[in-house]
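Narrative of accomplishments. A recurring question from our advisory board has been how the design workflow behaves on a single, concrete structure rather than in aggregate. To address it, we present the structure tokens for one chain from the evaluation set, followed by the sequence designed for it. No filtering or post-editing was applied between the two.
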């Protein structure tokens, strides 16, 4: 027999969970020093999952704090002209993001539960902060003189409790004959009883019914990327803008390119994709976009080949090279040193008006295929 589920009432701090990050950035139990245990209660998968999600929410806030305190980024509310009462989101940027005359780095994570500053929640909880967050990218970028903007493409709506529906009682219709009214009341009581029984089965803990209020002009990752481009990146002073986009972030970048092609081409120097899920055919990216991507983008994909080994592509867009790992969520962290090298080479090539090193690499790939 299935055990009764304990209340879905979880702590709202890391200390409450009795976990903390050690000096290596690994999440460990305060008392035992053990890594996080998902199956805290046997046979209660849903409860364990809810506990994991509650911890995940705390991790999200913890990473936001690190972005401000550890990386010295500031939190900027969007939409920029939001009224007091409307739903809002936010991004993070360095003090010099809009004024740095040389270079700006823009970071975009993938889809799902991750928020600004994260690559993968699973890595943060089970491995460490370095592999699972964007913090190493931010710190190195700042050290190398980049301004930084961190997008928050999954923060598309706020959740509020659904207002309770008032169901008009059939006895309100006083002009009906008493007998008919009684019969209707009986039916409505039966219906309510059935509904309550079903509700208890479906939602045993009587969790609140929530509804979503979407954030204006930021209701999807694609919309968010275009919004941040128009209101921040396009206004920045930087001569060279660089993007690092993981997984669905790559699709959002291609969508931005489709919507703002001329602007992106004039401002963006190079784009590092990590296991991007973009598709130039499905997204209907035109020939000029595909050509630009071939020259200025590189996709570090999950592969068992050594880091930077050329990987064949079925699609006519940017060169693909191995990220040095076959785990999708680790591709950003594993290709970290190569991405900075790629950006430096692209910058140097642009300033000496030579073709980027990547173009030579892509020609080499073409010849090898022939």
């Amino acid at each position: 027999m299935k055990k009764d589920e304990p209340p879905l009432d979880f702590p709202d701090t890391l200390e409450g969970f009795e976990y903390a990050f050690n000096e290596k950035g690994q999440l460990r139990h305060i008392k035992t020093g053990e890594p996080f245990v998902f199956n805290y209660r046997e046979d209660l998968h849903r409860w364990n999952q809810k506990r994991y999600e509650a911890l995940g929410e705390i991790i999200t806030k913890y990473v936001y704090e690190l972005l401000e305190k550890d990386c010295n980024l500031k939190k900027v509310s969007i939409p920029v002209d939001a009224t007091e009462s409307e739903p809002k989101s936010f991004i993070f940027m360095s003090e010099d993001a809009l004024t740095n005359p040389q270079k700006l780095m823009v970071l975009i994570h993938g889809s799902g539960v991750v928020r600004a500053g994260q690559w993968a929640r699973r890595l943060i909880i089970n491995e460490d902060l370095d592999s699972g967050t964007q913090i190493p990218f931010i710190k190195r970028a700042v050290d190398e003189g980049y301004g930084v903007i961190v997008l928050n493409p999954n923060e598309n709506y706020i959740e509020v409790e659904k207002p309770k529906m008032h169901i008009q009682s059939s006895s309100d219709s006083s002009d009906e004959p008493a007998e008919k009214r009684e019969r209707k009341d009986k039916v409505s009581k039966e219906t309510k009883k059935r509904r309550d029984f079903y509700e208890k089965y479906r939602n045993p803990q009587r969790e609140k019914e929530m509804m979503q209020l979407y954030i204006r002009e930021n209701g999807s990752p694609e919309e968010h990327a275009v919004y941040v481009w128009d209101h921040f990146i396009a206004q920045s002073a930087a001569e060279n803008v660089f993007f690092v986009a993981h997984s669905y972030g790559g699709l959002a970048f291609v969508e931005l390119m489709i919507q703002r092609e001329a602007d992106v081409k004039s401002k963006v120097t190079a784009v590092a994709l990590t296991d991007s899920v973009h598709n130039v055919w499905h997204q209907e990216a035109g020939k000029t976009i595909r050509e630009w991507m071939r020259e200025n983008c590189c996709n570090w994909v999950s592969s068992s080949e050594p880091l930077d080994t050329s990987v064949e592509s079925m699609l006519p867009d940017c060169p693909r090279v191995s990220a040095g790992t076959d785990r999708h969520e680790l591709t950003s962290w594993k290709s970290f040193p190569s991405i900075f090298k790629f950006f430096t080479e692209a910058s140097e090539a642009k300033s000496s008006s030579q073709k980027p090193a990547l173009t030579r690499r892509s020609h080499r790939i073409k010849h090898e295929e022939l």
